[in-house]
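Today's session is about reading a structure prediction critically. Students often jump straight to the picture, but the first step is always the sequence itself: look for stretches that repeat, for charged clusters, for runs of hydrophobic residues. Only then move on to the predicted structure, which in these notes is written as discrete structure tokens rather than atom positions. Here is the chain we will use throughout the hour.
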Amino acid sequence: MRIVTSRLAGPVTLLAALALPVTAQIVVIPLDPVDPGEVVTPDEPQDDPDDFTLTPLEPRDPGSVVGGEVTTTEEDEVTQGTGAMLRGLDKLAGTTVDIPLAKGETGGLGWLQITLGECRYPVDNPAGDAYAWLVIRENNAEVPIFEGWMIASSPALSALDHSRFDVWVKSCTTD
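Below is the predicted structure for this chain, in token form.
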């Protein structure tokens, strides 16, 4: 395609030329069929020693490890908090609000009802992380739009999927 512009034509002619339909060509190349006589199974002898044949693997005991060392990590010892501090975002208005909730309490963000089941935090580092069990309903619906653990250090791991609002855990409260 050749596009010619002049000073008189201007950008309108150029845009009209770019709006011309563009065609694409897709070429499909069929694979060569495999002759069943060429397939070698492990039970048949091979004529050519350079042919590669797969041998079946022997089953291993449960828990056995193939390869290097396995490193296990100790999980954090956690304790329960008295409540949680959540943060809510109204994506349309661009505003955030802190939502303090006690265990078993329900708070609101727009037309969402957020109920805190419990909040847990690491014993050795209370400010380091928080794990909150939340149930979030829309317009007092029976079926929640979110029910599960939210983790403060990994908010995207288990997040509320809502078109207007975001909710995440900031910390547990201990008072």
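Discussion point for the tutorial: Residues 64 and 70 are 11 Å apart (CA to CA).
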